[in-house]
Write a structure and sequence with these properties.
Blueprint lengths: L7 H5 L7 H9 L4 E6 L5 E5 H17 L7 E5 L4 H12 L3 E5 L5 H11 L3 E4 L5 H7 L8 E4 H4 L2 H4 L8 H9 L5 E5 L11 E4 H20 L7 E4 L6 H12 L3 E4 L6 H8 L3 E5 H17 L2 H19 L5 H9 L1 H10 L6 E5 L5 H9 L4 E5 L9 E2 L12 E2 L4 E4 L4 E5 L6 E2 L3 H6 L1 E2 L2 E10 L5 E6 L15 E2 L35 H14 L3 E7 L6 E7 L1 H10 L8 H4 L3 H14 L9 E7 L18 H7 L1 H6 L11
Parallel strand pairs: 1-10, 3-4, 3-5, 5-6, 9-10, 11-12, 12-13, 24-25
Antiparallel strand pairs: 1-2, 7-8, 8-18, 13-14, 14-15, 16-17, 17-20, 19-20, 20-21, 22-25, 23-24
Length: about 650
Amino acid sequence: MPEFRFDPVAEARNLNGLGELAYQMVGAAPRAEVFARKDAEDQWERVTAGEFLGEVTAIAKGLIAAGIGAGDRVVLVCGTRYEWVLINFAIWAVRAVSVPVHAGCSVVRLRHILRDCRPAAVILEDGRHAVTVAGVQHELTDLGRTWRLDESGLEAIIRPGAYMDSTAIRFRREETSRKDPATLLYPVRMVVGTRGAVLTHGNFLAAAEGLLERLGSALTEIPEGRATAVMGAPLADIQGHAALVACVMGRVRLGFLPPGAFLLRELRTFRPTILLADADLLEQVHSGERARASEAGWDNLNSFDAATDLAVSFDKTSRRGAWKRVSRMMYDWMYSRIRDVLGGRVRLIVCSGLPLSERMDRFYSGADIPVYQAFGTVETAGAFVANGPEQRQAGTVGRPLPGVEVRLGSDDEVYVRGPGMFPGYWNSPETSQAAFRNGWLATGFRGEMDAEGYLLVRERLRPQASRLVPERSTLVSGPAALPASSSAGEEGAPQRGSEGGAPTGAVREESSEAEQRVALERRLCEHPLISQAMVIVEGRPYATALITLLPEQVEYWRLVNNRPLSMPAGEITADPELLREVQAVVHEANGVVSAEARVRAFHVLAEEFSVQSGLVRPTGELRREMILRAFSEEIDGLYQVPEIGGRG
């Protein structure tokens, strides 16, 4: 087995840029296995450091030959896959700036990103967004190349630089500074029209160094060459970015799932020793095993609950007597079932994103799979606090990483400063300035901090910059022209559980426009999948609708339809099968109103409207004017697309 020279923090301090990581791995152990991917026979194929560097170098030469200069933006519209990693490291190696975008990105969102960052090149996973790029290409004077991976793979990128000397790459690497922009991230939870966050090479390196230093002793307990993990988080998100850099820096062999793969199934074949997870995955694994125990009978369910309570109690107690240890061993059959679901070899869990409950944190740790929570935002390069083997407080997201300071404001908002803080938003000095308060980054999250410095994140107060509101992804179905109609004044649109509204039966055609609108919204919200609906007719040629879905129903749909747990909400709501189900609901609801009042296009949102976002009144009513302003671009898009589906 190839040996790893495992002192990642000391090695990282000598790096000036992220591209150097690929070269550093080869210098340490060129035959070390650093990545894994599925081959044509659906078997895991391992990639050595030397092979990885060879592919990165070939792509980097192709980028230079195509005219990509230092500081140029390269938009990468691609799902989580090994090719994404190759391209991103090549972009970093030539001192360009990667702009990762979800493969399921909406048309409106992608159009905004292209116009805002003005890329020199665009790389598409397939043809889904080719028309969108072509439609704005005449506006983008800097856009020189557009490549599609489904047509010629990486070959089209590599070919122009095939005979180029690699000296050009070395010059770019040597010129790279930690202050250089590395990635431009447009957070998924922001409205389409906002700016992207600029993250430097130094931001990512500092966050990864801090995480590895905090987790150091847990990682060193894993035999050399045996530290492995599966990338479950989308690489276009900050959690995926941060995990990628930390794993490469820490010599953790990282596996990438093929498109559409089911994470839990692949964990059993890959058998990672480190689980990169979010709170939802851990909760679902426990709930799934409890459901299995319930199906087997009440005795099994009672035993499962007793085993859960015992694991929680075991983790709480620092002094564990012989009786407690024996009691825990009696239930190891249940804990082994949990370990088997996770692949059977997991030595530790790194949980990022929204916090895991204290009970689940203690359960897994008490079941001998210690959980170390970490937390960060886009603006902090993914992590600014984390737990570790010597510094762990269950139910919290940990203490500040080395070099990071955290404090609470007067309203308990979490403020941060340190080397991982981003320099600002792209081409938006005002928004950048609003993100900071006297040099401290305002995270937009409310928290609590105990006397030892452990942070407990309570809730999101607002998006990080005060002018931002939560984003929703865009999906459109079948607009068709109808006569224009005027609007009547009314209160907020109904949502599930709200009072008032018209009866749910058919509405007479002579009913007012407002009555028909309310009846249609009411009927939509009666369906178990729909959470909120707002029909739009004001000054428009025909009726359209904004629709949100119940998270638990979406999760159930995902499990039933075998969609991967790592799939983000935006991609789930973009799934054609789910969209067809929503379209059927709209078609049925249209039956309660006249032909002129029927919805001809709809827009599915990845998140519900909320009071925190300012889009819902405390009474539960939707704030129509606020929603119309927040989603003006998406609503306009409903009146510009060709018809795709049933007419209602």
